[in-house]
Amino acid sequence: MRTFEVERAIQSCVKCTICYKSLFEICPIYEEFGIPPFSPPGIFYLADGIASRYVKMSPETATVPFACNMCGACSKRCISGDLFNYDYPTELIEGIREQFVEAGELPEKITEALTNFATSGNAWRLPNSKRVEWEKDSRVTVPDYAKEQNEYLLFIGDASLIEETHIMPKAIAKLLRKGGVDFGTLKEGEVDSGNEARELGESGLFEELARVNIETFKRLQVKKIITISPHDYNTFCNDYPKLGMKFEKVYHYTEIISDLIKEGKIEISGEIPKTVTFEDPCHLGRYNGIYEAPREIIKAIPGVKFVEMQRNFDESFCCGGGGGRMWYDPDTYRKQRISDIRVRHAKEAGADIIATACPYCLSMLKGAGNLGDISVKDVGELAMESMSMSQ
Amino acid sequence: MMIERKELLTGGVPATMEAILNEQPFTISEADEKRILEELRKVTSPERVRDELYTRAYYRGGAFTIKGRTLSYRLPDIVAYPESSAEVQEILKIASKYRIPVTVVGTQTYPMGGRPLKGGLVLDVKGMKRIHKVDTEHSYVVVEPGVTVEELMSVIRPKGYMVATGSYPSSFSVLSTLTTFIAVHNMGNRMWDQVIGLEMVMPDGTTLYTGTSVDPDAELWTDVQNSFPGLTNLFRPSWTTIGVITKAAIRIWPLLEKTALPVFGFDDFEPAFRWTHAMSKSSMVDQTMVWSWIYVGQYEFARHRYLDYVEARMKYNQDQTPEQLNLFNCYAWAQMRGYKEEVEGAVETAKRLAGQYGGHYLPEEELQEKTPGIWQAWRAYHKEFWPILWGGPQPNIGPKLKPEPLLKGGKGEGPAMSSTWTGTTEEIIKMYNGLKLKLKEYGYKNWRYYSRMFNSGQTAWFRFFPAVDAGTQEEWEESLKMWDEIVGYVLENYKVFGARGEFLFEDPENPEDIVGRAKPIRRIMSAVQKEFDPEGIMNPVQKKYSLL
């Protein structure tokens, strides 16, 4: 964005509050920290203060913009946003983060995550050998895409790095194999897609990560790609084409599995007599409009009673892990955890199981402090359980 | 993406505003600040007394710009979030002890309120959210100041009642906290006098009651209204208050039945503006809000460009020729809502008055056929936006429309700024005629402008929206320069108060001509302040320019 556009965009915020406050929770960070500085207007007025030289950029002032989950709930509601031809305010927040990155005034954990991205290709600084650990006890042979040039590339992403989300690639690989899908993975050759680096305001690093991936994709002539993480899906769909990488088709795994069930290629007849609700991942639903595929999978499982939470579809509520918050917890007073709020929503809906379709959501919700009897599962995991029971 | 700015205060800024900004800020030693923080945290809780820079930065300004830029007010030193009257009392006692300036804020949706002009302590009352009483029998509610209109509506609407959301600030009436609501409803527009009584905590910790609270046995409307003089006029939250509102008794009304938006075409701005004035002074019933909007500037070289967010929803077609848009030079309309008979009567009054000023009534079909652009605007207001504002609780403001982008840059597609002036009707008309000539001097190349006037019954507003052809930073700077010159010209030559907000302050050349409060009220306020706030704790700078 050009400078004057940014200036006007910041000033277009009139603190009307509709983006963060209403009869129910809207902005996750406002609910989390309980004071309006933690809200889109809070970020804008901070940026305006910096532009007017009333406020200095520092790791402390960076707390607010980097607390944002980039969930996009504000963008769906902002009235001023109608004036701009970009995703306002979310993209603007990204631009404000960029300023902090350029100035090098970042919270320690963010600096650490960005450095890790640059040096290790992932935010945890894990060796690439970790990317295939999930295969060890998966009992599914996963072909190496580089050798076999399968029809689909299954991009595992961060699900392979977070131990508690290993269940996702395990279940998805099993379902795809059962459905007769010809797929392979990049094994240890995967590099982070860069979505989080971009959202953290490090556009240069994003481009670097994307460049590495694009080179691999082009070399291996990848045409159809299936992602596990909605964050990867988002950047492959919306950012990579701008950098010259156009896939024939990008799929989120729920789309493929939903089709396989509809076509009768996967039989999921094992009964799961539970009340299940679905947490729409922000980058799958609000950002890319995929709402039905995961619901279709859940509803296809015999015995499942599907219930919606009050906040759903494009008004869904973040799990708390987006926008870099997987690696950063602001050091300040907290009213409540975002994941706890979402679990409360699920309890209010009467759910026994919260299903989701994102490794971050899975990890964050599993870590909620008020789960009680509720369990958190991936949609693929549920389908796999049902399928296993029917065999 | 560094943002460079010019000095904010250049020519054209009223002397009073400059004086305010030149005021010495409140200063306090580090040791004292630490002690104050400790004391405040003891009477509230640690997480509700904050002094981080990012928290303070939020309260620097609000929806208040001068020449398109956020006015650079000072940062507060401390922000407190009280949750009860008792906490407010304790906080104010501490503020008095250390002579810390106090500024009260709600959601800060009201453009003039809630600026810590001198630093000090900001009291954010959004956490005071209890609804103490809903009395449908006697048509009133008792609420705390952090309750928003939306929240209150969600409780009373199912009972068949509404709170009379005002005409200003229009866009936020459902979102404002009641502090804003109270400020708005004492401004003298047609929805005034909705506040029956207040509980106020004064700077010394004393609690004052006005209205119903004075006579707890008051049951009838007449008792309620007569139980105490309209002291609410003395206490306007956020701005120029001399106490903190901790509870308010507010009227509620049966849900309304009908809306109307008659549109009239006029040959020129002046008769249209006079019609608007006459409308606002006509004997409309209390529940019919009258707004008039006048579109000016449809000259042969000028095309509409809506820059307000509401207008942006209209998806204006820029390819329409001026002829298509300009059946008349000016359009005016009245926004009406009320019970069936009164709305029908008000429409007839509007037509009759328009006849007196040479206006032509344009039924919807004619409007759509002859002026599709104006019809689109009419539809957006009448069918899309107002129903949302008037529709009670509205968690989602509706489907997001996809208007054409406004910030393409270059070839007349640049961003825009706005400036609003207020003054008497006659002075606004004089100013408009002068401005018209001045704009022609600039050749109007790449300048299009849209103006509107809002007449609240007391003051006339004239909002000037010059859209500029700025595709580059240099062009943007050039446009700002031109704008500065025009704003300077207007303020220098006409007795109007210009850019948003300053009209609240006394004009040094015309001390009698303050817009807002009558002199007797200011005298009473001064006396009350001497009694309860001798140290000038509450909004000390504003007091100097506005109360005395």
Mean pLDDT of chain B: 64
- Terminus-to-terminus distance of chain A: 55 Å
Oligomeric form of this entry? heterodimer
End-to-end CA span of chain B:
45 Å
Strands ordered across the widest β-sheet of chain B:
7-8-12-10-11
Greatest contact pair? A-B, 60 and 62 residues
Major sheet attributes of chain B: 5 strands, antiparallel
Helix content of chain A: 40-55%
User: Which ranges of chain B are low-confidence, i.e. pLDDT below 50, for 5 or more consecutive residues?
Assistant: 1-20, 62-72, 167-173, 186-191, 212-230, 236-240, 294-324, 392-416, 444-450, 454-458, 499-519, 540-548
Task: Give structural attributes.
heterodimer, A: 391 residues, alpha/beta, Fumarate Reductase Iron-sulfur Protein, Chain B, domain 2, Rossmann fold, four-stranded parallel β-sheet, 8% strand, globular, B: 548 residues, alpha+beta, four-stranded mixed β-sheet, disordered N terminus, disordered C terminus
Task: Provide a short characterization of the protein structure.
The complex is a heterodimer of chains A (391) and B (548). Chain A is an alpha/beta fold and 391 residues long.
Description:
The complex is a heterodimer of chains A (391) and B (548). With 391 residues, chain A is α/β, with parallel strands linked by helices. Chain A is built from 17 helices and eight strands. Chain A has helices at residues 3-11, 28-33, 40-51, 63-67, 73-77, 90-103, 108-120, 145-148, 167-178, 195-199, 203-219, 230-238, 253-262, 292-300, 338-348, 359-366, 379-390, and strands at residues 152-155, 183-184, 224-227, 249-252, 275-279, 305-307, 353-356, 375-378. Chain A starts with a helix and ends with a helix. Chain B is an alpha+beta fold and 548 residues long. Chain B contains 17 helices and 21 strands. A five-stranded antiparallel beta sheet of chain B has the order 7-8-12-10-11. In chain B, strands 1-4-6-5 form a four-stranded mixed beta sheet, covered by helices on one side. Chain B has a three-stranded antiparallel beta sheet with strand order 16-15-18, with helices on one face. In chain B, a hairpin with a 2-residue loop joins strand 2 (65-66) and strand 3. In chain B, helix 8 (269-281) runs antiparallel to helix 11 and helix 14 packs across helix 15. The N terminus and C terminus of chain B are likely disordered. At the A-B interface, helix 1, helix 3 and helix 6 of A face helix 3, strand 3, helix 5 and helix 9 of B.
